[in-house]
Specification:
The structure is a single chain. This protein has about 150 residues and is α+β, with helices and mostly antiparallel strands. Strand 2 and strand 3 form a beta hairpin. A three-stranded antiparallel β-sheet has the order 1-3-2. Helix 3 crosses helix 4.
Length: about 150
């Protein structure tokens, strides 16, 4: 119970549950997983499904399901393009997705701000920097199958 791995794994589970509870409370028409996908697409622009899968740490089948759901909601448009000499499917956010994302992001931030007041600003910065460092090292070390 006192290992770093256990603490990180349990914290990740609590964070997922917190996100789900917050999205349910806000009565959002989107899941946390779909929001993470919108967030990733808003930061990385038009990318192929394989690259998106790597960024959201999901396999290509699960990523395809998420994109299909977002496409049905009118948040994502998918199209054929090339990457090098390969034909790939890329996607981009629609205008309604951009509007929804920015509005939802504000609501999610409001929902988490109170919770994060247990930390000083310095502690939050240190935590964020430590997590980024851990993330980067894991990204170099762990092979993700997409």
């Amino acid at each position: 119970i006192n290992t770093l791995y256990y603490q990180i794994e349990q914290t990740a589970k609590y964070c997922r549950n917190l996100g789900t509870q917050l999205f349910n409370k806000l009565k959002l028409e989107i899941s946390v997983e779909e929001f993470v996908t919108l967030d990733t697409l808003s930061l990385h622009g038009e990318i192929c499904q394989r690259d998106l899968a790597k960024l959201i740490l999901r396999d290509s089948v699960r990523t395809g399901r998420i994109l299909g759901s977002l496409e049905k909601k009118g948040f994502v448009e998918r199209y054929q393009d090339t990457k090098g000499i390969r034909l790939v499917r890329k996607m981009k956010l629609t205008k309604s997705a951009e509007d929804f994302y920015s509005k939802t992001l504000k609501e999610v931030h409001k929902g988490t701000i109170e919770f994060l007041k247990i930390f000083s600003e310095k502690q939050l910065d240190e935590l964020h920097n430590s997590l980024k460092l851990l993330h980067e090292k894991l990204k170099e070390t762990v092979e993700i199958e997409v």
